[in-house]
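Dear Dr. H.,

I hope your travels went smoothly. While you were away I took the liberty of generating a structure for the chain from your last submission, since the lab meeting agenda had it listed for discussion. I wanted you to have the full record in hand beforehand rather than looking at slides cold. The sequence, exactly as received, is reproduced here:
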Amino acid sequence: MRAVSTDKGPLVIGIGNPWRGDDGIGHAVVDALADTPGLATAKSHGEPAELMELWQGHDPVILVDAIVTGAAPGTLHRLDAREPLPRGARYSSHGIGLAEAVELARSLGELPQHVIVHGIEPACLEDGASLSPEISVAIVRICENIRMELTGPRPDASR
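The corresponding predicted structure, in token form, is as follows:
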């Protein structure tokens, strides 16, 4: 595995499609965090090549997306990508899944050392819908969690 430069600092990437209801969770979180000092943000549709280009040189990287597990809408999920992401959950409603994109980056040596996935269980993924009320509340909570994670001690690589 080649050494990856990490001089750009922390990055939050919001993944999804804001025109499909709660699939816009990631973009809404990025909008809420956009003015956070010392934090870079980006929006993506979740394609692997796009993600790898966006996170190049950043560490840690936080990915935010709708995650469908069957839990109650608004349920928060946090996954550490140092381990393979569970394949049972659906991490998005777009193209290749987020778990597959992370594993492809890992196999190519393009995965930053610290990648955390924050997700919110969606209520509605219909075309043209807006964010569900329970999702709007969860977005506030997930933004607080991300800010605390970025200001707290860095997790060690041994886990």
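Two observations you may find useful: The two ends are 20 Å apart (CA to CA). Strands lie at 11-15, 40-44, 61-66, 76-80, 115-120.

With kind regards,
E. W.
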